[in-house]
């Protein structure tokens, strides 16, 4: 009887291990719907790897979103409304920007804290790159058109958005991905990183000096991290950067174990 019971337990454990090994990887999105433009985030990554499970956390409470994140191997913090300026000491300037989604601010801050603590791979896009910078002690330009002298067009009220070149740091991850120092990206933002948090280092800038991509200054022992100001999910199809960014992020997701 004892030998039969032991054998049964062993078979159950083997079965559980097999299921765990074959369960699909999961990526959480801070917002990936219901609007069509938000669904593009999932399409962008699923076009590269349809075998991953993609989870939209939009509308969840901070506690429920963090709980769902615990079973995920990646986090994408997506674009959207302006970050509330009180979070970086500029509440008096709230009338010069907006609209805001303060509930979403709270959810994304909670998600980022949990992801960084668990070293879950993170991809932060547009607003996502801005709120991540704020969380780590950085600040934002309230309104580029009013506060930053530039001839580069960073926003355009159209579905295609504006287009401009970025200058890529030659020692950066971005350069290693596409082996070029310049690249054309889309642009939909009226805010951007002002003071970059000390833990980060720029990977690319617009010609006017505005930071367009960043990552950890010292990545050892931290989450894999890419933060970009443009929208790779909407980028020109002939531009290889979008696909390469998806590939490197998905590779990190596949290699991550909770």
Short description:
Helix content is 35%, strand content 19%.
Characterise this structure.
This protein has 258 residues and is an alpha/beta fold. It has one domain: Rossmann fold (3-Layer(aba) Sandwich). The protein is built from eight helices and eleven strands. The chain has helices at residues 2-22, 36-46, 62-69, 102-118, 127-135, 144-147, 173-178, 241-255; strands spanning 26-29, 53-56, 74-77, 122-125, 140-141, 162-168, 182-187, 192-193, 200-206, 211-216, 225-228. A nine-stranded mixed β-sheet has the order 2-1-3-4-11-10-9-6-7, sandwiched between helices. Strands 5-8 form a two-stranded antiparallel ribbon. β9 (200-206) and β10 form a beta hairpin. The longest helix is centred in the first third of the chain and has 21 residues, at 2-22. Residues 16-20 have low confidence and may be disordered.
Topology overview:
Elements: H1 2-22, E1 26-29, H2 36-46, E2 53-56, H3 62-69, E3 74-77, H4 102-118, E4 122-125, H5 127-135, E5 140-141, H6 144-147, E6 162-168, H7 173-178, E7 182-187, E8 192-193, E9 200-206, E10 211-216, E11 225-228, H8 241-255
Parallel strand pairs: 1-2, 1-3, 3-4, 4-11
Antiparallel strand pairs: 5-8, 6-7, 6-9, 9-10, 10-11
Total E-strand runs: 11
Order of helices and strands: HEHEHEHEHEHEHEEEEEH
CATH topology: Rossmann fold
List segments where confidence is low: pLDDT < 50 over at least 5 consecutive residues. 16-20
Largest sheet: 9 strands, mixed
Q: State Rg.
A: 20 Å
Shape: globular
Number of helices: 8
Mean pLDDT: 91
Helical residue percent?
25-40%
Give the CA-CA distance, first to last residue.
36 Å
Counting structural domains, the number is 1
CATH-derived architecture: 3-Layer(aba) Sandwich
Name the CATH homologous superfamily. Class I glutamine amidotransferase (GATase) domain
Strand order of the largest sheet: 2-1-3-4-11-10-9-6-7
- The structural class is alpha/beta
Beta-strand fraction estimate: 15-25%
């Amino acid at each position: 009887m004892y030998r039969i019971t032991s054998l049964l337990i062993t078979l159950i454990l083997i079965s559980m291990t097999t299921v765990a090994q074959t369960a699909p990887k999961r990526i959480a999105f801070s917002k990936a719907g219901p609007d069509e433009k938000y669904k593009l985030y999932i399409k962008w990554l699923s076009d590269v790897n349809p075998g991953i499970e993609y989870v939209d956390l939009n509308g969840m409470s901070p506690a429920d979103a963090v709980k769902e994140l615990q079973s995920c191997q990646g986090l994408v913090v997506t674009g959207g409304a302006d970050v509330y300026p009180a979070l970086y000491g500029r509440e008096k300037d709230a009338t010069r920007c907006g609209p805001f989604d303060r509930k979403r601010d709270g959810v994304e801050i909670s998600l980022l804290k949990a992801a960084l603590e668990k070293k879950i791979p993170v991809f932060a896009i547009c607003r996502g790159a801005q709120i991540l910078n704020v969380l780590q002690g950085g600040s934002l330009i309230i309104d580029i058109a009013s506060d930053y002298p530039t001839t580069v067009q960073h926003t355009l009220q159209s579905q295609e958005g504006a287009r401009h070149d970025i200058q890529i740091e030659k020692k950066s991850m971005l350069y290693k991905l596409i082996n070029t120092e310049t690249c054309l990206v889309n642009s939909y933002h009226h805010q951007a990183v002002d003071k970059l948090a000390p833990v980060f280092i720029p990977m690319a800038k617009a010609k006017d000096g505005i930071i367009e991509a960043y990552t950890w200054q010292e990545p050892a022992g931290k989450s894999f991290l890419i933060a970009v100001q443009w929208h790779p999910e909407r980028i020109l199809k002939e531009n290889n950067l979008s696909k390469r960014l998806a590939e490197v992020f998905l590779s990190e997701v596949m290699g991550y174990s909770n």
